[in-house]
Each structure stands twice: as C-alpha cells, then as structure tokens.
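User: Assemble these into one structure.

Assistant: Restating your components, then the assembled model:
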Amino acid sequence: MTKTLERKKVVDLQNITKSFYLQGGLEVPVLHDINLTVFAGEMVAILGPSGSGKSTLMNIVGGLDVATTGKYYFDGKHVDSMTSDELAELRSTDISFIFQSFHLLPGKTVYQNVMLPLMYQRSFSDNYDEYTVHALNQAALEEEHWHKRPNQLSGGQRQRVAIARALVARPKLLLADEPTGNLDSRTGDSIIDSLTFLNEKYGTTIVIVTHDDSMTDVVHRVINIIDGRISETKGNKV
Amino acid sequence: MKLRFLIFESLQALYSNLLRSLLTIIGIVVGIFSVTAMLALGAGLSQNVLERFSSFANGDLTVTGDINYTDYDWVASQPYVSHALASMSVGGTDVIMFGSDFSPSVQTVVGDYSDLQSYEIVSGDTFDFNNPDFAESVVVVSDGFAAKVLEDTGRSVIDQTLTVNNQAYTVVGVIKSSSNAFTRGDGIILLPYNSVVGVLTNTKNFSSVAVLLQDSSYFEIAGQDILKSLNASRQLAFDSEDIFNIETAQAFIETAQETTNMISVFLGVVGGIALFVGGIGTMNMMLTTVTERTKEIGLRKAIGARDRDIMLQILIESVALTSLGGLLGILLSLGVAKIANSIFADSSIITILVNTQVIALAAFVAVAVGVVFGLYPARNASRLQPVDALRSE
C-alpha cells in the first residue's frame, strides 16, 4: 500500500457528488460521495450495470462534465475551478476518449480523423504526420485503410481508428466508454488486447468504463459502482 | 485551432454536404445578382441621365424669358461672362426640300455658337453667328437633318435650296454638334437672325440666352446679378420671375442626380429584399446543419475544441457559402450586363453599368450577409455542452 501512495496520481476524486435537476427543480442524485484515485500507468475498469452512474463518472473524470460538489484534481491541477477554455485545453492535451459508438467524422478519411485532435492543440508545433502515423501504428491499423472513409471499415477497424485518434495527442489518460459494446466478442477481445498492449508497452493510463465482467481479468483494478456509489475495489496488480 | 485548419475544416464540411451547400448558394446567387443588377441598372441610368443633362444644359446658366437684343448684348458684355448665345425657336414652320416635307427644329441664334455648342463642320461652311446684321437667305443644317433628307430623297443638301414657310434658303453648311441633347425628329436647321425676324416670325425677341462664365463656380451670384439687372430694366422687383428666369446647368444636374439616386435606392431596396431572403435561407441551412451535427460538435469539443473554435468554424462555413454565392452572383450579373447592353445598344437610356464600386459593394454585402446570418447558428453551436451534444440522437 505504501508503494501505491508513492506513485503519481493522475486522477484524484475527493467526495464527488453529481445531481441532475429536472424541470420544476426536482433533484436526481446520480453519484454519491465518490473517492477515487487512478495512478499513472494503471489500467482500471469501472464496472457497473446500466444506470449505475459510471458514464457520468467518466464524463467528470474526462472534463466533459463538472461535479456538483467535491474536489477533482487531474495530475495535480484543480479541475473544478477551470474555465471552459481550460477544460478544452485539458481534453486537448491530457485526456482522450474512446466511445462505444466510435464517433468518427464520416466526411473525413481515417487519417484526417486521427489527426483532428492535434489540430485543436494551439501549442502543437511538432510534425503532424509523424504523430498521426505513429498513433495509427500503435492502434495496429493497417496502412491500406488509412485513406478510406469510416463507412468503408468494419466495426473493429473503426474502433482502432478511434483508439489511434485517442492516442495521437499522447495523453496522460485514456478513457474508454464501453469500447467493445458495439463489437462481436472476437473483435472485442482484440481491441482489449490492443489496450492492454498500449498500457504495458507505453505505460498509458487507461480507465475503461464497462458492464462487461470479462474485462476484470485484464485490468489491474476493478472498481464496482452501483447506484452511484463505489461498492468495492478489487485487485492491485501493478 | 489555427485559422488554416479552421478554414480547411469549414470547407470540408461544406463539401461533404455538397448538394445542400449548392442549393443554399442559389439563394445568395439570386440575392447578390439582384442587388448587383439593380445597382448597376441604377448606376447606368444615373450616368446616362447626367450625360444627357450635361450636354443639354450648355454653358453655366441659361436666361429664359422674353429677351430682346439689348438684353442679350448687356448680358454678353458683363465682365464675368465669357461667352453668350441667344437663341429663338421658330414654331409653326413648314420645311420643304426637294419636294418633301421635313420637321426639323428651326432656330435662329446670335452669339458665340461655336463656344457654347461645340460642333464640327461636316461640309460647306457656316455663316457668322456673331453678326446680328447678317441677313442673307442661307441656312446651316445639322447632320441629322442632312441624313434625313438623304434617306428620304436620296440627295445631298449642300448648296441646295430648302423653303421655310415658302421662303427660300440655300444650304451653305452641314454641322455635327457634339451635343446629343434631346434632339428628336429631323434634326436642326439654323437661320440668320435677320432673315427670320419679320420674315418667318414677327417677334424680335429671343427665348433664351445660354451663358458661359469666366468662372463656373460663380453661377449662382452671376445668375442673381443678371436677373436683378434685367428685372430693373423692366421696372420689376429684383427677384421677380415674371419675365425672366435663370436656369443653371448645376441645378439641372442636381435635380437629375436626385431623381436617379432615388431610383437607385429603390432598385437597391428591391435587390436587398431578395438578398435578405437568401440570407434567411443561409441561416436556415446553418441552423439545420448545427442540429444535424450536434454529435460532431460534441466530439470536437471532447477532443479539445474551444467554444470559439466551433463558433468560428460555423461562421467561416456561413461566410464561405455567401462569398461563393456572391462571386457567382457578380459573375452572373457581369454576363447578363454584357448581354443586356448588347441588346439595348441602341437605347440611350438603358445601360447596365457594373463598375468597380458596384462589385465591391456586392462583395462586401455577400460577406456581411454570411456574418450576420451565420452568427446566431454559430453562437448556438458554440454553446452546446459536450456531454449533452455527445448524448444527442
């Protein structure tokens, strides 16, 4: 345990709550008193049934949404006090997403989709092509597909494009929301293998949000969430 | 996002929805074409009318009324007057040449005709317009009259005789006046003053005196002085307009300008309404596009787009649409102007003048329409919350 505390905290959530307010002011609490730490180089699964609040938690961790109360530190920076532009900057440089439904832009080629996050980095001054090619290779997408449109690819290939897009900015944290949800089991397994490979070879910190129990075998830590509360944390493989 | 990327993203988004983009552009093309065509028509009309008025109003001012030779002589001798020309139209005339009837404007003039009506001698010579005592039965005709006679009779007029109310006059010269003032019918014939008065008409008085000043800018003061002096000679109040009137070229031009400006404004408003409709079409498309691309906007925000990146992208798309529409509208109006001008080449009024000012204004308006009508959809897009946008269906 002492060893764990010495490691660098990438995500540090302290007493986070999140409520939504319906018309008429009715409060619907979704997350209750969440305390969660993710360390650099970890691969963590947040496991929970549909409606448990895991996607809301992922949105807060990813800087897409803000908590109602509590404190959130990302890599030591206080996220709650960030402006909209600062949050955008955080998502641009430090946090990347892989979505269940890929969210690729249909009018762009694979290559252009992958390069897109770099274009939103105002301070990026390196070689766009070098980073893009590197990310595509990391995601193990064959070169013959790079100049195709997303609708010319299979589901697995599309998810690899999404992984490449998430990797291109070389983020500190990769958030995957049900990354195998739209894939058959064999393709899903190969995507999980790819994420494991990225974590092991490059030390990429990965948080996978899923309801798929089979994921528990490949991650270092499993965090169960039920009804907006963390119920159990398993494993500490790192 | 860097501007070059934003422009690339915007153009790619438009290209990926090519048909809809083109359909939207049509509205702007029609709008800009209407504005350009209307402004060009107004500019052409304005130019034509001004040219006509400028050539019609010879000299700096014209004294009209019942003017006798003494009045004319007094006006011509004033130190601020450079040149003066008294003229009288002879009405109710019956002009016959080679047995055919013609209807020219019959005039007699005394004074500096050559200075106030710059002309060139086509054939023969003129008589001395400055000599009021010249009384030979000769006539100088305009090239319009000569052409009409040639057309009707097949004969040349020079050294031939024509009769005005049975009085015979020999044609000594044909002149071509640079003035294309409202001369209709069979041109003009000019007779010596002393061969008209008491022969063709009993009145000795001129109907107008055209005056060219030493310094044109004093037309107002000079006009007042002439009116005051002529009124004094008839024991009239100094500003009376009972007998004499002063008309200035400037006043003619100003009136013409005001009229054509009003027409231009009216035509511009008609074009503006068409453009407004086109602009609404653009806004409609951009609003639809923002709604359809909510998820895309959410994704862009999730990967690092700031509010202003999204706003600028939508604005650039809007401006690109209206600019392209504007360019096509301007090209279309240039083409139509060329065709229309060749069709109406003989018309002295209808000219479509697509000048640099009209093009610059149309281009500016096209860009402005893109900004104005793109602003609201762009603002809506930029305010989308990424988490809501990603969740949208």
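The radius of gyration of chain B is 33 Å.
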